[in-house]
Write a structure and sequence with these properties.
Helix content: 25-40%
Largest sheet: 6 strands, parallel
CATH architecture: Alpha-Beta Barrel
Oligomer: single chain
Strand content: 5-15%
CATH class: Alpha Beta
Number of strands: 12
CATH topology: TIM Barrel
Amino acid sequence: MNFFRLFPLAAATVLLGAAGSYAQTTPAWNNKQCAVVLTYDDAIDVDLDNVVPALDSVKLRGTFYLIGSSPVVAKRLPEWRRAAQRGHELGNHALMHPCDGSLPGRGFVTPDNDLSKYTVTRAVNEARANNTLLTAIDGKTARTFAYPCGDLTIGGVKFYDELKPDFVAARGVTSGLQTAAQVDLTNINAYMIHGQSGDYLVDLVKQAQASHTLLVFLFHGVGGGHGLNVDAKAHRQLLRYLKAHEKQIWVAPMVEVAQKISAAQQAPQKPR
């Protein structure tokens, strides 16, 4: 039984006591209590219609993982460019969003986009092609990757191993809070959000504050537009809490947080 999932607010209270001082800060989190990353997958219309305006209204920045072949990328390219100019990250969610169709519950996977039928070379080349497209949109070369469907391997081989030089880090789909030292930059934890309340979202942030850890949200639809959805009011409640506590919480795109984690992990350890 996972205490933290069942009783998030109570868990935060326990962690607060264990932490000793709620005001404690962490260098890896930009000298704040914790880091929160807001990520949005699949390059869908509601990203531009609902999410970007909501983030901009409170001057917070997020990471949008774009599928290069999404028609929403092509038809709304100037809007994606403007979002990047305002500080949002355009992350790489692969060119075709291939998922492993051999796994249970993957009836939605088409033969053309079945990762289990890919070669590692094809997956790598498509991810790099999407990087080229994204650079043409935002002019940037540093960005992060998000595994489509959270699938890491092709025939037992981790295809991202060949992509490490191309990205700062990669986001996965396994939930969990981690310190900078615990973070695996090849598969960063994230909480998949689908139907949870605003209170649940805020309580997750409170847990991260209390434990001085990284919290990554994984959204798809916000106020509709996707089978995996969170109510727009719940999303706004989260943003309001983050804005009200911005002196204690570092909210930044994944690429910036990952760069900070990488630096912290590579820094020489001070003798105790």
